[in-house]
Amino acid sequence: MSSHREAPEISKDPVADSTDVYAFVSPDKPDTVTLIANYIPLQEPSGGPNFYEFGDDVLYGIHIDNNGDGYPDISYEFRFSTQVLDENTFLYNTGPIEAINSPYFNRRQFYDLTVVYGDSHQTVGVNLACPPCNIGPLSTPNYNTVAGQAIHHLDHGIRVFAGQRAEAFYVDLGSIFDLGDLRPFENLHATFGLPGLAAKPGVNATNHLNVHSIAIQVPISSVTRHGHPSIGVWTTASRQSATVWDADHGEKVSSGPWRQVSRLGNPLVNELINPLGKKDLWNSLPPSDDKLFAEYVAHPGLAALLPTLYPGVFPNLAKLVAAGTARADLEAILLTGIPAGIVPGFTNFTGKVLADMLRLNTSIKPTPTAKQSIYGLLGGDAGGFPNGRRVTDDVVAIELRALAGVTYALVDKTYKPDAAAGELTDGLTPASVSSKTTGTFPYLGEPYSGYNDPS
Amino acid sequence: MSSQDAERPSEQARRLSRRTMLRGAATAGAAGLAVTAIGSAASPAFAATTNQSQSHRAPQVAGPIMVHVRDAKSGDIEVFSGTSKTRLRDKDLAARIARAIG
After folding, report:
1. Which of A48, A391, A425, A434 can bridge A397 by disulfide, Cβ–Cβ 3.0-4.6 Å?
2. Cα separation, A388 vs A22, whole angstroms
3. Which DSSP state fits A375?
């Protein structure tokens, strides 16, 4: 979660496995939007000597739909290449890396950035340097300084960064995947006849783990159409169709057209809503095809499961599910954007095409930090999810509450959500993340080092 | 530069220089994958086709060419090169590939 190891095939291909997408109006530069796509989930910081890196054989993309058809109008494409200075050592670095061009930085990555507008391709960055992974006080003594040198300022007002960062997504994986247990509410869990459990605080399973992040900041004016401030955002990873293992040289060789193997827009959709047998198919398709999966949004399995897992806690949700009511609220939040008139003064509707995209109304100014709610729109804060997604938004609680029926009342004024629905949480907050967001591009916190954060 | 240009020139050259004609496997009646490159030596069964192609000035293709015989009986073949794929229906070619791997 939110899309870590979410589908059977992609879980075996972590380099191409998208984990989270964030899209928000940059709080410190509000004429720009920041788009972040994370890959390579659950990185244990001491995982050397071959530390984590992007795939040279993967085409990474961050896409924007600005006319509501579920197809990309603008794509930022990233291709990586790895350079090894000395192949006769086993070391990732042969001394302290104190600058991004340090001769001791032995195995390093670079990337090209291409902007695609329809059939037009424009390469705007070539051989852009990635920072090293954060290893420890001897190898990466001034990590933030070196990472800062990996922020590249390009033409057209683009800023870009690609490299390791701290995982910002907080979630109690260990509890949730134990048959839908939420530690703060596990005293209410059915427990399948096993001995009851006592309520406990949540445990952030992703704390002290890293991801590889692609972050790009672009002028809002470059991604929106005049008079249409809402955009849809998603990321993809693609591999070439044919790959063979070249045993003579100990490497894979690829050829043929790019084929999409991973996709992510809204958090947790492929994770929690699509069924197991459709997840890798969903990963291979564009958002424009999401009408194929609309029934899973309209009738989510987790909403049906909650009254069973927590007997007596969700009586109104149980009736809603039993009636076979299609969840127009979830369809709006996840597949079309919220039309005007549903939430007073707010819309991020992009059109009638059912497409899973993270929708951001770029005309809504960033909410000052002191006034932000981690529950985003549910907390009265239109600067947060599902209006885009900020790094600190509690998307687990927001989506659990929505699935439990809180948002159905927006489309059916006669529906009364269960009291517990509005309280659902896995017990975590941004305070559960040790490495804090930086407040400036690329916003995700300093990656945990292997020396300081061993497993 | 197009993002579809998968390999940098130096990488392409490095790979071309080391390719032999036929690697991998293709099995009769089942899916198989072979890797080849222009201008290299070939096994006897495949060499005739390669030489014939060269005599007709085959286009120079950078990087590996991969051949996936989806079904040798029907001659259903996919050929991957660069970022493109060509689908062929050629029973004779499929049979010769199958014979080449014994």
Report:
1. A425
2. 7
3. T
Range scoring the smallest mean pLDDT among A127-131, A144-148, A229-233, B21-25: B21-25
DSSP A133: P
Q: Please give the Cα distance from A182 to A421 (Å, whole number).
A: 13
Query: What is the chain A residue with the closest CA to B22?
Result: A246
Contacts of A241 in chain B (CB under 8 A): 78, 80, 85
Boundaries of every domain in chain B:
9-100
Closest CA to A57 of A261, A235, A247: A261
Q: pLDDT, tens digit, for every residue of B39-63?
A: 333 333 333 333 333 445 566 677 8
Among B8, B24, B66, beta carbon nearest to A256: B66
Distance CA A284, CA A295 (A): 18
Distance CA A203, CA A48 (A): 26
Instruction: Please tell me whether residue A159 adopts helix, strand or coil conformation.
Output: strand
**What are the structural domain ranges in chain A?**
10-432
ipTM beyond 0.85? no
Residue of B3, B17, B65, B84 to mutate, testing the A interface (most A Cβ within 10 Å of its Cβ): B3
Q: How far is CA A137 from CA A95, A96, A134, A141, A144, in A?
A: 11, 9, 9, 5, 12
B33 vs A: CB within 8 A: yes
* Vertex A262: Cα angle to A333 and A8 (nearest 5): 100
**What pTM did the predictor assign?**
0.90
Q: How many CB atoms lie within 10 A of CB A158?
A: 19
Say which residue the tokens 């600005």 belong to.
Answer: A66
